[in-house]
Design a protein that fits this description.
With 366 residues, this protein is mainly α. The protein is built from 9 helices and 3 strands, in the order ααααααβββααα. It has helices at residues 4-22, 33-85, 92-101, 107-129, 145-197, 203-206, 287-292, 296-301, 304-341, and strands at 225-231, 234-239, 248-251. β1 (225-231) and β2 (234-239) form a beta hairpin.
């Protein structure tokens, strides 16, 4: 993948070629042809410095990893060898238990285990030297305890070296980016001043064609849709042949059971359904539509579905109350007719639906 400095360096070389060929004495404020030539060439120098530092960082990281892997490998092998050499009742088993207790899955745990292993290794060498005849210091392959001690000491220096090299790499990258931006600005300044200084049609102005200019981001390829097929709550999209996109499905944004916003619903609209408090003929619509129909004003005001359901419950309760009264009225009117039809004579007049009010003083008990 091309880096950003490559395009700037290429335009700088093209600018230098145009400048040298058509107007070498042309000066842009304090910028001369020689200075711009040196700035363009310095890009490659700074890129090389950055690449060298990247290699230095990679070597420092490799040295750290090699040293750490040596410590981690020796932590396991040396502990196993010492465990096999110790007698069952040897007091050094207590120190060996502390070695095994250190965590091998973290860097700090491995360094802690290595320090404890160095102490155990030194005690074991002292015990071997006190035997008769004396035994030589323990070697794990060709590695002695002093080698492990040197690796643990060296690890701290390797970490510091790697951190310093990474900091230097960051500085060189910053200096390269700043220099590239400066050259890019000079390229664009010279292009603008050159195009305005020389009239259109002159060889100097036509020489601007030799410089690559940025055309902007290439627009994405348009996707032509071949067909839309609705399936339930989703739409299947099929693109024309040769399109980079495969057929996919998109969910519908609306609800199929929602009424359009331009229709007047009966819930929550005073006077819309002919009833008081917005109660209209909610039984004339399906329950799902009646329950889920809310106005945009109610949704903005925070009433939402809860307010709609509350109004629906109030309207249904009122409808049930009026239904009971309607049955009572019908019964009081039909009872005399039924009695006369059965031969019971003329029925007494029906009592009033609402009993007259009687004051407490006029009430007599015989």
């Amino acid at each position: 993948m091309a880096e950003s400095w490559e395009a700037v360096h290429l335009r700088g070389q093209q600018t230098i070629g145009m400048w040298t060929t058509f107007a070498p004495d042309f000066v842009l404020a304090s910028l001369t042809l020689a200075q711009h030539t040196a700035d363009v060439a310095e890009i490659l120098t700074r890129v090389n410095d950055r690449d060298v530092q990247q290699a230095t960082v990679a070597l420092a990281a490799a040295a750290r990893d090699d040293n750490y892997n040596f410590i981690r490998d020796l932590n396991t092998r040396a502990a196993q060898v010492i465990d096999g050499l110790l007698d069952v009742e040897d007091d050094l088993h207590t120190v060996l238990d502390d070695v095994y207790a250190a965590d091998l899955y973290t860097q700090e745990g491995n360094l802690t285990r290595a320090r404890r292993l160095i102490d155990l290794w030194a005690r074991l060498n002292a015990a071997r030297a006190a035997l008769t005849p004396a035994l030589p210091p323990l070697l794990i392959g060709t590695v002695a305890g002093a080698d492990l001690q040197a690796a643990v000491t060296r690890h701290t220096d390797l970490l510091q070296t790697l951190d310093s090299e990474r900091h230097e790499l960051s500085q060189r990258r910053s200096r390269l980016s700043a220099h590239v931006r400066q050259v890019d600005r000079n390229n664009k300044r010279l292009y603008a001043v050159w195009s305005g200084n020389f009239p259109v049609g002159t060889p100097e102005h036509e020489a601007l064609r030799l410089i690559d200019t940025e055309e902007g981001t290439t627009p994405p390829t348009a996707l032509e849709i071949d067909a839309l097929t609705q399936t339930g709550l989703s739409v299947a999209i099929t693109y024309v042949a040769g399109s980079p996109r495969r057929p996919d499905h998109r969910p519908l944004r609306g609800r199929p059971d929602r009424e359009p916003e331009d229709r007047r619903g009966e819930l929550g609209r005073g006077g819309g359904g002919g009833g008081e408090d917005g109660c209209g003929d909610v039984t004339a619509r399906p329950p799902a539509v009646a329950e889920h129909t809310t106005t945009q004003r109610e949704r903005r005001g925070g009433i939402g579905m809860l307010g709609a359901r509350k109004r629906l419950w109030t309207c249904e309760r009122r409808d049930r109350t009026w239904s009971r009264w309607a049955w009572r009225l019908a019964g009081s009117a039909l009872c005399p007719l039924l009695l006369s039809a059965c031969g019971g004579g003329v029925a007494p007049p029906a009592p009033p639906l609402i009993a007259p009010r009687v004051s407490a003083g006029a009430l007599q008990i015989g």
